[in-house]
Amino acid sequence: MSHSRWKSLRERKLAEGLTEPEDVAEARREIRLSMALAKAVHDRRTELGLTQTELADRAGLTQAKISRIEGSDTVPTLPLLAKLATALDATLNIALDDDDTRVSFTAHDHAA
What start-end ranges are recorded for coiled-coil regions in this protein (predicted)? Predict the structure, then answer.
């Protein structure tokens, strides 16, 4: 089933008053957060012109770990997030709300 077909089926069921089980809704929230982080890491890494291997070296991680983060296959710990932010020369910003998750990196300004 294609993503768009699955999404429209889900939306139709919700419009009919059917609700998702809480565990499914929680899993969906976790996936959204993981995907938002993955995109933020990828975007900042490519903005800096780094490969996954180069970012891994800067952060003291393996390329496979960076790949898993960018692939939404893992949710890193806070210490690992701090390493990533340092390696990406940025501040990590995470805003969590019920249905709104925003993750971004803000580049450090070194022109002082």
Answer: none
